[in-house]
Amino acid sequence: MSQSLHEHLTCVAAPAVWLSPPSGQLTGGADGLYVADRRVLSRLVLTLDGAEPAPVGATMAGADRARFTAASGALTVERTRTVGRDGGTEEIRVRNDGADPVTVAVAVEAAADLAEISDVKARHAGEPGRAGDRDGGHGTDGTPLRDGVAHTGPDGYTVLLTGRLRAEPTLAPGEEFTTTLTVRATPPPVEGFRPLPPGAPPPWSATPLTVRSEDRRLDALVGQGIADLGALLLADEGDLYCAAGSPWYLTLFGRDSLWSARLALPLGYELAAGTLRTLARHQGVRHDPETEEAPGRIPHELRPAHAAGWLPPVYYGTVDATPLFVTTLAEAWRWGMPEAEVAALLPAAERALTWIEGFGDAFLSYTGSPDRLVNQGWKDSTDGVQHADGRTATPPVALSEVQAYAYQAAVLGADLLDAFGRPGGERHREWAAALAERFRARFWVDGYPAIALDGGGEPVDGPASNMGHLLGTGLLTPAEEDLVAARLAGLDSGWGLRTLGTASAGFDPLSYHLGSVWPHDTVIAVLGLVRSGHPDVAGSLARGLIAAAPSFGHRLPELFGGQAAPPGHGSHAERSHRTVEDSGHSGPAGRTGDAAVGPVPYPAACSPQAWAAAVSPALVTALLGLDVDVPAGRLAVSPVPGIGPLSVSNVRVGAATVSIDVDPQGAVSLIGVPPGLTVDL
Question: Distance (Å, rounded) from C-alpha 312 to C-alpha 292?
Fold first, then answer.
């Protein structure tokens, strides 16, 4: 029986991912070990005397490891499954817990279908017409694997399994039998872009950011998110970036990878620098209607040609990645990215600004394509942008948050150009000021900014989370930010920010973008609320995410249901003092303790996903009220009221690591502030 994604235990070491149901038995659906977008293990079934043992428990043991327990009479089976960048290993232990000796036939069936992950995704989602699905010529289970015998597909993709698959040990009481299986995959050479594993541990691994607080849920959330970001790292020409997410998106996405790097800046500037350099190498240079490439445009998604699915291998259909490129560069510079590295990217930033301002006196917008992406902002589902009465917005669509990104890109880009002695700064500021005036005249409806303007110039009404992305960008006046903050408070589900208000006709708490909660969307609003002086609303939304985390083993998924938290739960509950030990991952979805009143899982949610994992360091930024500006020689800390006591170690600012303590009364102390920075408390 096929399992929903949220029911799987997911072990990640990009570009590899191992999806396992709670039984540990790989039997169909999306189950499998994948390396570089191909399923190299489609079947893995353990039997004792010809029968499958009964599952007892399953637990995650890190970003890349899971443990499964099963039983058959007096025998206990323990399986430890670990994914590596090029495959995985499984250690199987069969222990006799009875009082008498037992002879047992241990057998493992293993097979590889070498299916493209895009085909698996299509089958899992019930998409028709995928006649090109690979099955290895041996039915849906694929080709049986034998110890030490390599299996090579028609295109040269090779899988090698080593380890004992059959044995018949006699076990005395307390004795155990052990076998270890190893699967290694060797993809063939391909032309064009290929996501590659990083050549070294994450830059932050030697001094990882850690949190110790009164609420151990926060501590565990931060630890899990940072581990997942490390597991999602990929490389291009030695430059690091985060894959968008598991299992379907272990590759470079412009919007997702930029937001992930930007939210993760407390871990250091290196991830942002690598992401920017990688995207700059693929920045648009010509006009191509098929890929939607344009000079200066930052791509949406890059994949190898064989794994491209229904989009072109290099696809530019995103309206927001280009301004996000400029703002991420500016913020990385503020967090201590070396001047030489910033200077090398300024030509790419200038080309991006040219693309942005190429819209002239119009708003940044997209037309979309029914053959590719209809919507090209982050809410990219076909029905993701609609009026309060349920009408889908007609193109071209000008999203409110994209105007904010563009405004901020122009202003921060101007600051960069001034600082590095390059011309054009004042022109970009003038363009931004004119954009703000046009926005003020056209987007506001019933006291809040509309989701968008549709192709007829009509505001797409209905309060939605998009407005949270406007805060702190400079597009709004302080009085306007007050109005937005009040509206965001009304979108608080108790577990985080709903993407759409409950009064809209299309509201559905278990839809993709019309009422669900996306953790990254929530934390972007939290950061904006802190920057704009609304810590109370920010604190409530942050507490909602922290309260939701134990239901998912502290690995926040791509999204979850937007149903309201019951009274006394979510952000409205008293702070929990549970320890990490009694809020750990105890099952496939990680639901523990008061799971019955946790947020409702979205069945097809991807997890881990980079920008959901990056919520962890972003919460540190927000809760501490961190504002870092190395070029200006300033580091400000203004904690959200009520978060203490809190101890944060190893916030990376340039080449330094800073530790910050907040006592129960909110007093702040810092250790490790680099020379040349003035602390503002």
Answer: 10
